[in-house]
Backbone:
């Protein structure tokens, strides 16, 4: 429960520039410690994020499939008692995640396949300026092609995110472009997208206008199919992707969210911490209701509570509509089991998917050890997101 006195003290510390102390105080509040407010010099220490294991490329085998009639979505995963200290969401404190140790430095071969290009550029509008990197596939034929917008997590860079997800390699197979907008430290000390600020939850201003502006710039400059533009992200980037789906349903044909939160899940620092720990208790956005959405989330995620995955897909009125669901259960060989829940419309088209990866934490499922915050033992989120994306287009939605 939020303690008004502690929230006021945290606000005072934040305005005074004491972000470390403010964050430590809010962490104590969410743990139920209502003691004296933290002051400079005696703030509680913050545990460093744990290194996730390296990643192997494995294929998942479906071991069970069930289908049901109209019903609501699955019950949220069991809650865990402890929140790992921010991990990929240190945008709330100014902390940066420690760089994983023992990881081999990235090379060009880790980021993009040979014969392709990965180029840097900048976009500027009234909200500011952002650099980005664009992946250009090796083939130049085939007419207008899809575009994937990838939003990195906290402390990550376009190169790191591309290497960890291996999106460029799969995009070259599917002959599509990928753009990676980059959040600078000047906008957030930990390079996180500011998903929890109301000014960055509006389509025509703030960070959403920058991300949409980059998207439209690529569409003008490259042979992009305007009906097949998609957005995906991890952690804070996943929350930003949810915002993009909610605020720009006419631009993005589908959304991919990994370990993120719903649009509108928070409006300030205290509510962001509460949403990360327990899931949002207030009104949320409509990304899952209006735009086809695929969600991956580990059910042992102690950074962003797994119940947030359910909230992303639960749009207004969706419970009353009781969409048809199909549940498939499987396991990656020598890896994680998973439950995949597919929601379909009256015509049988999958409108959303929820992949709950059992035993997984706060990391990209099935990524590469060349990048940070990947999990070797989960199903391949990159391949499944692309498969889901290419099942949807704005033309199918009648826009």
Residues:
């Amino acid at each position: 429960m939020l303690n008004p006195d502690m929230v006021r003290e945290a606000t005072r510390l934040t305005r005074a520039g004491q972000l470390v102390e403010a964050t430590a105080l809010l962490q104590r509040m969410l743990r139920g410690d209502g003691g004296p407010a933290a002051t400079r010099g005696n703030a509680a220490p913050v545990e460093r994020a744990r290194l996730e294991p390296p990643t192997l490329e494995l294929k998942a085998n479906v071991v069970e499939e069930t289908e049901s009639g109209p019903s609501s979505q699955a019950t949220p995963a069991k809650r865990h008692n402890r929140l790992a200290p921010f991990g990929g969401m240190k945008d709330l404190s100014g902390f940066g995640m420690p760089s994983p140790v023992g990881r081999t430095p990235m090379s060009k071969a880790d980021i993009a396949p040979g014969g392709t290009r990965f180029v840097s550029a900048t976009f500027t509008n009234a909200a500011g300026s952002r650099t980005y990197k664009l992946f250009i596939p090796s083939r130049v034929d085939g007419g207008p092609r899809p575009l994937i917008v990838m939003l990195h997590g906290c402390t990550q860079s376009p190169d790191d995110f591309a290497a960890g997800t291996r999106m460029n390699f799969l995009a070259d197979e599917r002959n599509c472009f990928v753009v990676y907008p980059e959040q600078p430290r000047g906008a957030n000390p930990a390079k996180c997208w500011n998903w929890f600020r109301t000014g960055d939850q509006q389509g025509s201003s703030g960070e959403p206008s920058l991300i949409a502006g980059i998207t439209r710039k690529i569409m003008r400059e490259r042979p992009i199919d305007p009906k097949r533009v998609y957005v995906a992200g991890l952690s804070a980037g996943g929350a930003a992707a949810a915002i993009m789906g909610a605020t720009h349903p006419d631009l993005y044909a589908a959304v991919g969210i990994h370990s993120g939160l719903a649009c509108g899940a928070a409006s300030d620092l205290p509510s962001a911490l509460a949403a990360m720990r327990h899931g949002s208790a207030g009104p949320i956005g409509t990304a899952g209701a209006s735009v086809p959405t695929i969600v991956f989330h580990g059910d042992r995620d102690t950074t962003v509570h797994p119940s947030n995955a359910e909230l992303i897909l639960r749009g207004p009125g969706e419970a009353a509509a009781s969409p048809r669901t199909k549940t498939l259960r499987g396991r990656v060989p020598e890896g994680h089991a998973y439950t995949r829940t597919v929601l379909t419309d009256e015509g049988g088209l999958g409108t959303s998917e929820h992949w709950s990866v059992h035993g997984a934490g706060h990391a990209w499922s099935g990524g590469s050890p060349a990048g940070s915050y990947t999990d070797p033992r989960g199903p391949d989120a990159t391949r499944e997101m692309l498969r889901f994306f290419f099942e949807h287009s704005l033309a199918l939605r009648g826009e």
Observations:
- The first helix runs from residue 4 to 15.
- The two ends are 43 Å apart (CA to CA).
